[in-house]
Fold this protein.
Amino acid sequence: MKFLVLKLRNDSGRPRRLSATAYVEWVLGDQRAKSAPTVVTNTDPGTGALFACNPYSTEFADRVAFSTLMT
């Protein structure tokens, strides 16, 4: 698990806009190259969290990975 906290302070006194982007390469199997084509993702409409699973993997079929950004 990786947990990151990004804190910024605007000392300019002027309004600013900010966007943050996350990039994830799901490896829900023993090798990314083999498992990547069978990873299935969906989003939770309530939280915006991104979920990923690999239902075609015999070893990892019951596992779920997630990524989310909180404000």
